[in-house]
């Protein structure tokens, strides 16, 4: 198979979809890998490192899309890339379709094959290609929130861990999954007073067993959220419904009850955000203020630590990329239920129900669609 890796062109996105080591594994199996020149620079990988393992370098993004049967990316294509995508071309990347209708409609129109990292799902319902970036984003959420609590950054001017004689900051984490757990670990490690909330009592029991004494668990409900955020210094939104739009757990009217200079960090922004006032921001302009409350809603948070993120992502995606390249996407998805669940759009047909429901689109049964493409 011919695999293309274009340079990411989203604002301040420095990750790359494939490391030189990952490219070497595909080349060893007889596949051709084309990487756009300088695509790996932001992650610390030079063109020479790619050439050394047999990668073909291409000067432009247009040439990279034009030659490839499978495009491997990190972030969803942006508007400038839509016309470059070919009919029946396989795109293997994060899409988060349910949060952005123009992208969904563009991929339908281009009749591409869209296999989304974030909906590849194991039998135990874990999301193996979302986990590494969730781990990075969860840890960064606390790190970034702590920075924007500083007065020069617009925050309350409070140190997360406090000092002897002064109380630490109060941190609320909504969601006890991968992101929430990692955010809680870092906040607890920095000495904050942390409450982690979830609707799953079994998960709360697990967290209660493994977290240090400065972490409390609480059932997530509208009443509890309203009460807890009143004196919170930082709230991390870490709620995920795979493939679907995130629910709004903090509404605009709640902001007036919060402390001025408190910080909301919405890690669910890729899925539409779990705060009503969320809107996507960038690393160049990461925050905005609503009713005196700072909002950090960067849609590609792990892009700020691209070396770590790129290695973690390639570790997770490479085994699946090898299957897609070795067998072709149709056979790979028939043979592997995990990959099959990653299919969102097939040649203009929406085959992931949460995406169809998000925009009132016709949903096509994936088994029938795969059979039609056999």
Describe this structure in words.
The chain is α/β, with parallel strands linked by helices. The protein contains 14 helices and 15 strands. The protein has helices at 20-28, 47-52, 61-67, 101-110, 131-148, 178-189, 201-210, 222-228, 252-255, 306-327, 329-335, 337-340, 353-359, 366-372; strands at residues 2-5, 32-36, 56-58, 70-72, 90-93, 113-116, 170-174, 193-198, 215-219, 234-237, 263-266, 287-290, 293-296, 343-346, 349-350. Helix 10 (306-327) packs across helix 11. 50% of the residues are buried.
Number of strands: 15
Sequence of strands across the biggest β-sheet: 3-2-1-4-5-6-14-15
SSE series? EHEHEHEEHEHEHEHEHEHEEEHHHEEHH
Rg, Å, rounded: 21 Å
Q: Please state the structural category.
A: alpha/beta
Q: Calculate the mean pLDDT score and round it.
A: 95
Q: What is the count of distinct domains?
A: 2
CATH superfamily of the largest domain: NAD(P)-binding Rossmann-like Domain
Number of helices: 14
| Secondary structure: helix percent | 25-40%
* Major sheet summary line: 8 strands, mixed
CATH topology of the largest domain: Rossmann fold
CATH class descriptor of the largest domain: Alpha Beta
Features:
AlaDH/PNT_N, NAD(P)-bd_dom_sf, Rossmann fold, 374 residues, Alanine dehydrogenase, 2 domains, AlaDH/PNT_NAD(H)-bd, single chain, 35% helix, nucleotide-binding, alpha/beta
Brief overview, please?
The chain is an alpha/beta fold.
What secondary-structure arrangement, pairings included, does this model have?
Layout: E1 2-5, H1 20-28, E2 32-36, H2 47-52, E3 56-58, H3 61-67, E4 70-72, E5 90-93, H4 101-110, E6 113-116, H5 131-148, E7 170-174, H6 178-189, E8 193-198, H7 201-210, E9 215-219, H8 222-228, E10 234-237, H9 252-255, E11 263-266, E12 287-290, E13 293-296, H10 306-327, H11 329-335, H12 337-340, E14 343-346, E15 349-350, H13 353-359, H14 366-372
Parallel strand pairs: 1-2, 1-4, 2-3, 4-5, 5-6, 7-8, 7-10, 8-9, 10-11, 11-13
Antiparallel strand pairs: 6-14, 12-13, 14-15
Helix pairs in contact: 5-6, 10-11
């Amino acid at each position: 198979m011919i695999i293309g890796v274009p340079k990411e062109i989203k604002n301040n996105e420095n990750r790359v979809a494939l490391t030189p080591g990952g490219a070497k594994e595909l080349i060893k199996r007889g596949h051709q890998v084309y990487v756009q020149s300088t695509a790996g620079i932001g992650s610390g990988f030079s063109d020479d490192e790619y050439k050394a393992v047999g990668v073909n370098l291409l000067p432009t993004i247009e040439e990279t899309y034009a030659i490839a049967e499978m495009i491997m990316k990190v972030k969803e294509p942006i508007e400038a890339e839509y016309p470059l995508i070919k009919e029946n071309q396989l795109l293997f990347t994060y899409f988060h379709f349910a949060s952005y209708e123009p992208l969904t409609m563009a991929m339908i129109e281009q009749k591409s094959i869209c296999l989304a990292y974030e909906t590849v799902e194991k039998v135990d319902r874990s999301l193996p290609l979302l986990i590494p970036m969730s781990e990075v984003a969860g840890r960064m959420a606390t790190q970034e929130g702590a920075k924007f609590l500083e007065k020069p950054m617009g925050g309350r001017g409070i140190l997360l861990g406090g000092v002897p004689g002064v109380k630490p900051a109060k941190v609320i984490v909504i969601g006890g999954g991968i992101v929430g757990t990692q955010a809680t670990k870092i906040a607890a490690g920095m000495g904050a007073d942390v409450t982690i909330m979830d609707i799953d009592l079994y998960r709360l029991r697990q967290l209660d067993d493994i977290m240090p004494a400065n972490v409390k668990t609480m059932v997530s409900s509208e009443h509890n959220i309203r009460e807890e955020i009143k004196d919170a210094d930082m709230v991390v939104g870490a709620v995920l419904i795979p493939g679907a739009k995130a629910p709004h757990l903090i509404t605009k009217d709640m902001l007036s009850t919060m402390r001025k200079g408190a910080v909301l960090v919405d890690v669910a922004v890729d899925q539409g955000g779990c705060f009503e006032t969320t809107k996507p921001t960038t690393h160049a302009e990461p925050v905005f203020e609503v009713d005196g409350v700072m909002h950090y809603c960067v849609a590609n948070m792990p892009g700020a630590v691209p070396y770590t993120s790129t290695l973690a992502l390639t570790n997770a995606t490479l085994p699946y990329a090898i299957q897609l390249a070795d067998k072709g996407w149709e056979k790979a998805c028939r043979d592997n239920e995990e990959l099959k669940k990653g299919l969102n759009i097939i040649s203009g047909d929406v085959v992931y129900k949460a995406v169809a429901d998000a925009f009132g689109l016709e949903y096509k049964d994936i088994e029938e669609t795969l059979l039609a493409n056999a």
